[in-house]
Design brief:
This protein has helices at residues 16-29, 47-54, 80-84, 96-100, 106-119, 131-135, 139-150, 156-159, 180-197, 200-205, 216-223, 240-247; strands spanning 5-9, 37-41, 59-63, 90-93, 122-127, 162-166, 208-211, 230-233. By secondary structure, the protein is of the alpha/beta class. It has a single domain (5-239), classed as TIM Barrel (Alpha-Beta Barrel). The chain is globular, with a radius of gyration of 17 Å. The chain binds 2-phosphoglycolic acid (PGA).
Length: 251
């Protein structure tokens, strides 16, 4: 049984006051939620304040990136131990904005994944194809490569602390959502790869999220699919009303 997982990626939005205010509203709005996990991923400078705002609540805290080294002269970078000390338990790795704007390779993504897991963070590994890759029938090749390379040398045990997010790049921030069928097809393909790389049992237990223009209006259709175990939400997670409506899908 995979517990639904709803994650909000605040990206480079919200200052301290707005971020803490949003976190407080989310705490109030999720008091009665029992059967789903909820995560918010603010920008680095907000993590400590948001951690205080959600203390004792059901909401978990994640970062949007990290450096793979444990410490060192890496100006502007953040390590896993710094995140853990906040305390922050999750990190998003390989988001398409990191891959495409900041040119992160599969190799770099893999180093980050291995380092995060080794040091005790839980990981959301993002994969997804560009529009031209989809149109030229390469979706499965791209997703397979990102997944296999991103998880290289990650043992089955590490998969207990790993979530995969399928985020087709053409659907992120564009208002174009993959249909629930599109998402389910690719996510079932992802589960198949995990089954080959690890075991059927591991693949059955790993949660696979969909991300890309998730909104209150499309959440129920997405969550109705067998292989959609949750969502990674950008724009619609920046406002309490819309994120709370997404969190309470199916009600
Ligand atoms: P979006 O972003 O919901 O604004 O499309 C999703 C994401 O980038 O994780």
């Amino acid at each position: 049984m995979r517990t639904p997982f709803i994650a909000g990626n605040w990206k480079m939005f919200l200052d301290k006051e707005k971020g803490v205010g949003l976190a407080e509203e989310l705490v109030k709005g999720t008091e009665d939620i029992l059967d789903r996990e909820i995560l918010i991923c603010p920008s680095f400078p907000l993590l400590s304040d948001v951690a205080r705002a959600i203390e004792g609540s059901k909401i978990q805290l994640g970062a949007q990136n990290l450096h793979y080294e444990e410490q060192g002269a890496f100006t502007g970078e953040i390590s896993a131990s710094m995140l853990l000390s906040i305390p922050c338990s999750w990190v998003i790795i390989g988001h398409s904005e990191r891959r495409h704007i900041f040119k992160e390779s599969n190799d770099l993504v893999n180093r980050k994944v291995r380092s995060a897991l080794k040091q005790g963070l839980k990981v959301i590994l993002c994969v997804g194809e560009l529009i031209e890759e989809r149109e030229s029938g390469k979706t499965e090749d791209v997703v397979r490569e990102q997944l296999v390379k991103g998880l290289q040398d990650v043992q089955a045990d590490g998969m207990k602390d790993t979530i995969i997010a399928y985020e087709p790049v053409w659907a992120i921030g564009t208002g174009k959502t993959a249909t629930p069928e599109d998402a389910d097809n690719v996510q079932s393909f992802i589960r198949g790869i995990l089954s080959n790389s690890y075991s059927e049992d591991t693949a059955r237990n790993v949660r696979i999220l969909y991300g890309g223009s998730v909104k209150p209006a499309n959440i129920d259709g997405l969550m109705a699919k067998d292989n959609v175990d949750g969502v990674l939400v950008g724009g619609a997670s920046l406002e309490a009303d819309s994120f709370l409506r997404i969190i309470s899908f199916g009600e």
